[in-house]
Amino acid sequence: MHNQRESRLCTVYRLGHVPYGEALALQRELAARRKAHEIEDTLLLLEHNPVITFGRNAKREHLISNPAVLEQQGIEVVETERGGDVTYHGPGQLVGYPILDLSLIRKDVVWYVRTLEEVLIRASADFGVEAQRVKGFTGVWVNGAKLAAIGVHISRWVTSHGFALNVETDLGNFRHIVPCGITACAVTSLRQLLRVPVNRSAVEERIIAHMGELFGFETRHGDPQSLQRREPWQSKC
Fold it and tell me: pTM for the complete prediction?
């Protein structure tokens, strides 16, 4: 699916728990450095504390619960520059933020989103889950329930934001929103579908492998400590 070019390097950082605001700041810094050709393509894999995020096209009425209720339950609400509507992130969810220069891969936003979907479809298949696309919607689905959400931002062909795959997510927290703006949208997780615990590290390995295959990367693992910002943050595994 990628252009037939010389294999490129992508550094993968597996960060564990990172608060949403800190991950957002880190993405912006890395995207700026990618535009300046200071770093190679990068993939961040992590999970967030409970947070509801609004994309550029989000409608306020898609937040169902009162902000006071969300605050009481420790769920943050954040507006972002990514595409899409409203979604939820939380523990047990595998979030991926690719920082890629599409001008060196393929300058095609639709292709990029479809390729992220394909990564998630193939990774799910590795665990015996037959996921698919649903015409007219982004993301990955199983029997009409959403398994993974995708929302991206692209500036000067450098990507940020990305995907969220429900591995062992508390699906009850999706009751606070209309997921991705789709009324009566059911959500699911690998744990719910497989009815057994799912090894997060193994899922990450399959995501990394399929990213390499589909985007033409040679991947290497980066040291999370090398990403510490001037305003320090500490990843927690």
Answer: 0.90
